[in-house]
Amino acid sequence: MFKEVFTNFSIFVHAIRACSVNAILAVTFIRNNLLKHDEMIIMPNIFIPDKYDNTRQLDHLIILPQGLYLIETKHWKGHIVLGMTKDNCGTKFSFLHKLLDSSKEETLVFNKEDSGLIAKNYGNPISQVAQSAGILSDYIKEKLDWTGWINALVFFNYEGDQTVHDWSTDRKVTRITSQTEFDQFFRNEVTTKNRKYNATKINEIKVIIENANYID
Question: 112 and 29 in contact (C-beta within 8 Å)?
Fold first, then answer.
């Protein structure tokens, strides 16, 4: 039986829209002779088991000849403070020193709604996608002769009132804050990075991941 892939209508809409945009990007690459039709695979909302046999949900995976790109998509509105800790909240946010759980990085989103100013803690999407990349990498290596790595990205894709304040010290995970930036990132990957996988290998990886979405 195929797993349920969407938990609510909002997630469904954002996922479909993201896939449509990514598909347009793929068509652009193909028309410009940067990729062949079977050299860009876009996989939304996939499920991968970890070593403890727990299921991990992943927002999007893009497979290119240049590598694998795991994308954590955040549709957040307002001012996003990424990487806030007890140590960097400063004098103006000193009251948060007692409210934050520890020195680990967290994300606070401030937004003005009809009821007033709203502040929410969303944890750490950078750490989240990095952990997911590790789980996906281990799964592929278990199933396939593969020695590569996963490129991890966080994509803040709200179009409108969104400002990202990046305080994080992590520089391994790429942060993208607009569709234009997203398109430019992948254009740069396709045009400047060396190819690692042919179409056959890309399909092998795709099939391995597709099989993880089914329960015996």
Answer: no
Q: What are phi and psi of 205, to 5 degrees?
A: -65, -40
CA 21, CA 43: separation in Å to the nearest integer? 13
Instruction: Indicate the helix (H) or strand (E) that contains 84.
Output: strand 78-84
Report CA dihedral (77, 24, 196, 45) to the nearest 10 degrees.
50
Cα dihedral 13, 17, 18, 21, rounded to 10, equals: 180
Amino acid letter, 33: N
Asked if 72 and 125 touch (Cβ cutoff 8 Å), the reply is yes
Contacts of residue 203, defined as CB under 8 A and 6 or more positions apart, other chains included, come to 38, 41
Give the 3-state secondary structure of residue 23. helix
User: 93: which 2 tokens?
Assistant: 């946010």
With a CB cutoff of 8 Å and minimum separation 6, the contacts of 110 are 78, 79, 81, 117, 118, 119
Q: How many residues would you count in the chain?
A: 216
Q: Is residue 39 classed as helix, strand or coil in its secondary structure?
A: coil
Task: Say how far apart CA 80 and CA 107 lie, in whole Å.
Answer: 7
163-190 pLDDT per residue, tens: 999 999 999 999 999 989 999 999 999 9
The model's pTM: 0.85
- List Cβ neighbours of 13 (8 Å cut-off, separation of 6 or more): none
